[in-house]
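User: Sequence in, structure out. Go.
Assistant: Echoing your sequence, followed by the structure tokens.
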Amino acid sequence: MPFWKKETPEELERKALAALQEAEQLESLVQLREGGIPVPATRRLQKQASLDGKFFSCNFSPAEYLLARQAGYQPLSQVVGSVFTRMEMGDDDYGVHSSYSGPLSSFTIYKSHAQALAVERLRQEAKILGAHGVIGVTVRTSRYSWSDRFAQFSLTGTAVRLPDSAALRQAPNLPFTSTLSGQEFWQLYESGYWPCSLVIGNGVYLACNPWSNPKTMALNDGPGMIYTKNVELHTYSEGVKSTKEMAMTNLMREVHEGGADGAVDMHIDCKMTKVPSMDNVIIDFTAVGTGVLYCTGSQQKAAGNRLLIMDLARKTNETIKVPTADE
């Protein structure tokens, strides 16, 4: 009896498949390190693009979808941009002093970098589909109970293809990204406005407890007084104000760099999180919107007309009461 066993064709096939999957996984990691998207995602999007619109998926309501088709917009597919990252405060932020209050520079910069990478991956998926832009983009930041050092930034939206127009020919930086719904995009686009890109402003600030620092305690009438009367906690108030100013300054810079006239559909989010092993609080302020630009020479189909606008995306269940003969 031989000392070895000859592998069956099924075993050889399984080994070849495992080797192929391992090589694909390594290639996907290389793509992610370079800011790209995984190989399976590229293959799936290329296959869907080859169907030439025979299959689509979108986050439009049925009424919005019908409006888009009537206006000549073609929803292609839902696209995703995601970054899973580890975020920790560095010594340049607050050193070893628990009484520090001030901006967390490395947090703010890295958060903005991670969000920009997620936006770029979203645009890469749209490019593979041959889309002109992505509308209905939602921005989510997820943290997990099993580790407060990890965060996931994810964006989802619907890639669309538009009919030829003067605004489309003048549009910079295609495919564009936008938080606008299908109906909101139609309203602005028909009025001569073009969504340039998603604009995000971030600000992260560390505020120490007022009673952990003699200077901040003095602002609140001395130690122990904050427990005995209703007073403003100036450290926290200053933290929220400073964080908002940081975020709005960064937002204005993105609007300017994107060549937009301004930003619409703004969403503001402010979160406060207790620092582990410390009594301090991290204030995280985010402002998200869509930069828009007026396109000169574009045809304004909706301009000059009185329009009755109904929210086609709203989904509410209303009970209609029909009066009886006795009422």
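User: And one key feature?
Assistant: Strands lie at 74-86, 102-103, 133-144, 147-161, 176-177, 193-207, 262-274, 281-294.
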